[in-house]
Design brief:
Chain lengths: 213, 435
């Protein structure tokens, strides 16, 4: 048995650091307020937006989200820690989610996961040293008709065989979906309250944040 | 039997079936037009007459659920449960990616019947493509004036928002979903109060499954009588069945609730038989939480009544996974125990501790260090965890109990044989590794 110690003497965030969330992103989070009765209900959408932009949700972003939603930062941590989708530390550019539901495992998912670990040289919840891939498992990706499945960022790879793993990993477009994208969480047309913020370009906003990282 | 004409899946395979244009050209948005000409109570009555039972797993009649809403309420909220996370279920995914407008039309009808002004589609986060499809369809419906203020020239207004989850099985439970929508941990609530009285943001709330709502346009368009004419009395209407595992044609099929598990696996228009001459050993016919069937029990009818006769919890999601003879049942046991151990939300002690202990015991058995008494220990843990309705906040421990119990009961000889055939000394070796 070994204990992992974390130094808690240093403050988790620097109170004088400049804000990590761009003004446009904060405005986008606020634009969702009319949809819900409470501001806290915007927490999951806000966390999705921040993670899509920054790759993960740093401590300072949690504090800033809490300020926007007028809740305690501990409430944000409380929610984040429940869900498997959110990362509180940097992840790889592409997150590979291997399905381990009963249908995927009995159809050869175990071997696919082993092959992934071998080729990437990492275990579950780890990231390759070059920062390209992180590997996680999920209980069911609801793709059981094409078992075994892999999800790479947004793209679902179906009927994956052990011999396909190398080809899938080498493909640069292995995380792209062909589906025409809807602007994430942009207000649908006809919602007048949110119209003034729909002029913000979500994609450039995200690119800007990525560049400043 | 005459070929069944698909109802919910009638637009599958049609070019650009996700667009409003194609949906309308194939007769879409007629049911809602009819509904909006009636009073909300008439719509509720029609759905009650159709005996539409919830497709999410519990099979509770949707019309009855709506009538629990207090009569003097000023506001109602509608949640669409698209957090499909029961392995190995994928019928909601198919519905959303082939026919999102059918879901939107059903949502408007349910919203009108319950007098909701706002509806939230709670979509699980792993559905990336489906999210864009549904979101695009919602935007299209807004642009056409089918959502928003004064829909189809009536006095009724409805806003639909797509809300994404973040990866938690328990958020498919209706109060867990409500908590998650409020931006909290997806912890199911103690009932009563039921969501119909005090749900999302403290308001009367209705939570319905995607497949349930997708049935509504057809009930309104063709009438309750047509709906009840499909399938047996207690299980009216078309139902989606999923089949996965080593069958020739795994996938999602629609039919009346008269087919058996054997039909689902072997019929040529359904599963098409086993692949590569494999033989069925075990089937989990209703999503994993409902329990397991042995090869002698494949004549079980997939309806709301028959599964009980085979010691199962219920019909569940009617998603069958077939396990063939080459698979070690110890591995299946471990896989299922792990699923509940990981996904228990941790509020109720007996579920949090019980599921993780079941996983530990199942892991010991699967790693070749099991004892015969471990099987009884698993049964005892399972019985102390679920099986006592009302002792836990949600149904997850009951769902965790059934597959473990049924597998041990129905496959005990095989499990005992595997344990007896273990190499000696494995238990001691494992003990050394763990410490």
């Amino acid at each position: 048995m070994s204990w992992i110690t974390v130094n808690r003497n240093e403050p988790a965030i620097d109170p004088n650091a400049p804000p990590i969330l761009s003004a446009a992103l904060c405005e986008k989070i606020r634009s969702l307020f009319p949809r819900y009765d409470t501001k806290r209900a915007v927490l999951l959408p806000a966390l999705h937006m921040v993670q899509d932009g920054l790759g993960h949700i740093p401590w300072q972003a949690m504090k800033e989200i809490a300020d926007i939603l007028e809740i305690h930062p501990s409430d944000v941590i409380d929610t984040i820690s429940f869900y498997t989708h959110f990362w509180t530390h940097p992840k790889g550019m592409k997150v590979i989610t291997a399905c381990r539901s009963v249908s995927c495992e009995t159809m050869g998912g175990v071997a696919v996961l082993l092959e992934l670990k071998k080729q990437l040289g990492i275990g579950e919840h780890e990231t390759t040293p070059d920062g390209r891939f992180s590997l996680v498992t999920e209980e069911c990706l609801a793709g059981c008709d094409h078992a075994p499945c892999l999800l790479i960022n947004e793209k679902l790879h179906r009927c994956v065989k052990v011999e396909d793993v190398g080809r899938i990993l080498a493909d640069d477009n292995n995380d792209r979906i062909s589906q025409k994208r809807s602007d994430l969480f942009d207000a649908p047309a006809g919602d007048s309250k949110s119209k003034d913020v729909s002029g913000l370009e979500s994609t450039s906003d995200v690119a800007e944040m990525k560049a400043s990282e | 039997m005459a070929a069944f004409e698909p109802v919910l899946l009638r637009n599958r395979g049609v070019e650009q079936s996700t667009t409003l244009k194609v949906y309308e050209s194939r007769g879409g948005y007629q049911g809602v037009r009819k509904a909006l000409k009636q009073t909300p109570d008439e719509v509720v009555e029609e759905v009650k007459n159709a005996n539409l039972r919830g497709r999410g797993g519990a099979g509770f009649p949707a019309g009855v659920k709506w009538s629990f809403l207090p009569k003097d309420r000023t506001r109602t909220l509608l949640c669409v449960n698209a957090d499909e996370s029961e392995p190995p279920t994928f019928c909601n995914r198919i519905l959303m990616e082939t026919d999102p407008h059918q879901l939107i039309e059903g949502t408007i009808i349910a919203g009108f019947a319950t007098q909701s002004q706002t509806a939230y589609i709670y979509l699980r986060v792993e559905f990336h493509e489906q999210f864009h499809i549904v979101q695009k369809a919602v935007e299209e419906a807004y642009a056409a004036g089918y959502l928003g203020k004064k829909i189809f020239g009536s006095e009724y207004s409805l806003d639909i928002y797509v809300h994404r989850g973040a990866g938690a099985y328990v958020c498919g439970e209706e109060t867990g979903l409500i908590e998650s929508l409020e931006g909290k941990r997806g912890w199911p609530r103690i009932k009563p109060p039921f969501p119909a009285v005090e749900g999302l943001f403290g308001q009367p709330t209705v939570v319905n499954n995607v497949e349930t709502l997708s049935c509504l346009p057809h009930i309104l368009e063709r009438g309750a009588e047509w709906f009840t004419s499909i399938g047996p009395d207690h299980s009216a209407g078309p139902k989606l069945f999923c089949v996965s595992g080593p069958v020739k044609n795994p996938g999602c099929y629609e039919g009346p609730m008269t087919i058996s598990v054997r039909d689902l696996i072997e019929r040529n228009d359904l599963g098409g038989g086993m692949r590569d001459g494999k033989k069925v050993k075990c089937v989990l016919p209703g999503g994993v939480s409902m329990g397991a069937l042995s090869v002698d029990e494949l004549d079980m009818k997939l309806d709301f009544a028959d599964p009980r006769n085979y010691g199962l919890l219920g019909l569940g999601t009617a998603a069958a996974v077939v396990i063939d003879e080459s698979v070690d049942m110890r591995m299946v046991l471990q896989n299922l125990a792990r699923f509940y151990g990981t996904e228990s939300c941790g509020q109720c002690t007996q579920c949090r501790e019980g599921t993780s202990w079941m996983y530990k015991i199942a892991t010991r058995i699967a790693s070749g260090a099991g004892r015969i008494s471990d099987l009884d220990l698993l049964l005892e843990t399972a019985r102390n965890m679920g099986m006592m309705p009302g002792y836990s906040i949600c149904g997850l421990p009951d769902g965790a109990t059934y597959p473990i119990e049924t597998i041990i009961k129905k496959f005990r000889p095989e499990l005992e044989a595997s344990i007896n055939a273990q190499a000696p000394g494995k238990a001691e070796a494992l003990f050394t590794v763990l410490n």
